Amino acid sequence: MIDKVVASAADAVKDIPDGASLAVGGFGLCGIPVALIDALHQQGTRNLETVSNNCGVDDWGLGILLKDGRIRRTVSSYVGENKEFARQYLAGELEVVLTPQGTLAEKLRAGGAGIPAFFTAAGVGTQVSEGGLPQKYDAGGAVAIASSPKEVRTFNGADYVLEESLTPDFGLVHAWKGDRHGNLVFHATAMNFNPLCAMAGKVTIAEVEELVEPGELDPEHIHVPGIFVQRIVLAPDAEKRIEKRTVALAAATSGTPEQAGA
Question: Which residue ranges in the chain fall short of pLDDT 70?
Answer without folding.
Answer: 251-262
